[in-house]
User: What shape does this take?
Amino acid sequence: MANTRSNEESLEIRRLRRARRSMLYIVRTLLLILMAAILCIAVFLTAERISNLYILATEGMALRADCVLADGARNDLEEYFTLTFLQNDPAMSDTTYSNYTISSYNYDLAIEKINVLPWSMSATVIATERVSIKGSINADQISEGQNADDFPPPVWTPVRYKITFINANARWYISELAVLEENPDLSHLCTPDPNESPIPAATPTPKPTDAPTQAP
Assistant: This one.
């Protein structure tokens, strides 16, 4: 009887151990699945935010330059920048190009780094801004006998920025531009060419020409 009882107790103990190991395995598996799901969600949200910030930075900064060079729609800047930033932005009162007619320009914002977390309410973008300009000085700004070609538009200084975003009402807005470096090394970047992508509003309409004559 003692041996039978002992065998039954041993069997019960083994069953309990197997059950405990099975429960631990299930718990560990569920935890791993949960952690993997959380990681996937975090990666997805981060990628989504990075993509959104990339678009907002490039579009917002390009529109800012357009307002300086081609009298762009300043009201549209409120879709990308905070009102406080716009009220204190020196570019909004910049008259460097007011005496010039900008026929075309190429804007380039080379994004270097985007720092954002899935749960953060702020983010930063490191980027280098370059603008290549074609234009001429207005006729009323030169004296008789002077050549307009001697007065090219001022060069737009390349700048490496730290662009700070804040999240307000589930939207990202640029709240600060910090100059990290003026005239940074651009050797690793392609040179923008205004002939490749002129702004449509400022591009002169080509004069009509006769239809080409086909060679016999």
Summary: Residues 192-216 have pLDDT under 50 and may be disordered. The radius of gyration is 31 Å. Helices lie at 2-70, 83-88.
